[in-house]
Amino acid sequence: MWVLALIFLAAACVFSLGVTLWVICSQFFIVHIPAAVGHPVKLRVLHCIFQLLVTWGMIFEKLRICSTPQFIRFVHDLPPLKYDPDVVVTDFRFGTIPVKLYEPKAPACTLKPGIVYYHGGGGAMGSLKTHHGICSRLCKESDSVVLAVGYRQLPKHKFPVPVRDCLVATIHFLKSLDAYGVDPARVVVCGDSLGGGIATVVCQKLVDRPDLPRIRAQILIYASLQALDLQTPSFQQNKNIPLLNWSFGCYCFSQYLDFSSSWQEVIVKGAHLPAKVWEKYRKWLGPENIPERFKKRGYRPMPPEPVNEAAYLEVSAVLDVMCSPLIAEDDVVSQLPETCIVSCEYDVLRDDSLLYKKRLEDLGVPVTWRHMKDGFHGVLSTIDMSFFHFPCSTRILNALVHFMKGL
């Protein structure tokens, strides 16, 4: 019995070592890290750790132990939270939706700004714990009350459940601002990655709600704003750059919208949508809307191929404005509040920010834009990672705080 146990343990150790070595050899030495990104070795190591988590998640999913998203979130949530003595943190629920409330500890005689924060992670990762450091610092440095929303995620809950959870939690918050000492004239929605897209959707959904306080501003950090065109300059330039490469992005994309990942090549070629759709949205998605300087690192226009009707039927959810808020109609976008947009040069989603920035400005919406020339997707999440901290994350937080103090 003991011999069998030892053999099993040895086999497990050898297998684990093999997986680790495979990830290191296939990722650490091969992944492309742009010269302009500071601390390239640090990013290589971080990328390898993340890919190791994804690989083990896929293995456990094949063995039916747990899903890949569940494993990644479990590991990400393991480190203990660090609490700032100047910030009071309260966990509770709006109905069934878990939220974290961050309040400055110092007493105040006046009402404070409020920030509703939606974390990123593509629906597969990210949580109230992973974004605790961001929300705590945002609360303290901007002297605002921050509400972080813990929406339901993959694998059980797909689009549009996360969006609806965030919308419901935001409405709850807006109806109870007095209880939290928040100024109803200074409520801001904020999010990164998928959370940035959700922030935009929430703003759009609430423009016609006169029964609620009007959202004062929206803050979009490397937001996911459209799922139609995957041949933008930023996609072509950055699809293999950490931390969001196309391989993992496609996994999140297909899982979130609940379609087969076998359509990957069809979607990349633009054959998932008919010509009439491309023609309708070209005025907002066309490459001519992106400044030429963002095409210098390499861009080749790729006309969409003829539509694959089967793919179109399965992935038509990309045309829902709750998935692609960038294509909302002018009469909605023109009513949106002042906006702060943060984009990163080495991010596959960079051009979503550039396209939306132009749409907003064309319709007269004030936009504050901060572009991180050395930034990559997910960099803000490194702000409290000690060794894996990137200075760019601090600059992003400083930009958010400066914007908040100017409202």
Report on the structure:
The chain has about 400 residues and is an alpha/beta fold. Helix content is about 45%, strand content about 15%. It is built from 15 helices and 8 strands. A hairpin with a 2-residue loop joins strand 1 and strand 2 (about 95-105).
Describe the protein's topology.
Layout lengths: L1 H27 L11 H23 L5 H9 L10 E8 L2 E8 L7 E7 L13 H11 L2 E5 L11 H14 L2 H4 L1 E11 L1 H13 L10 E5 L11 H6 L7 H12 L6 H5 L6 H11 L23 H7 L14 H4 L4 E9 L3 H13 L4 E10 L14 H15 L2
Parallel strand pairs: 3-4, 3-5, 5-6, 6-7, 7-8
Antiparallel strand pairs: 1-2, 2-4
Brief write-up:
The chain has 407 residues and is an alpha/beta fold. It contains 15 helices and eight strands. It has an eight-stranded mixed β-sheet, sandwiched between helices.
Shape: globular
Q: Could you report the average pLDDT, rounded to the nearest whole number?
A: 93
Sheet with the most strands? 8 strands, mixed
Tell me the structural class. Answer: alpha/beta
Radius of gyration: 21 Å
Number of strands: 8
Number of helices: 15
Strands ordered across the widest β-sheet: 1-2-4-3-5-6-7-8
Q: What proportion of the residues form beta strands (DSSP E)?
A: 15-25%
The parts where pLDDT drops under 50 for at least 5 residues are none
Distance between the termini: 69 Å
Helix/strand order, N-terminal first? HHHEEEHEHHEHEHHHHHHEHEH
**Helical amount among residues, as a percent range?**
40-55%
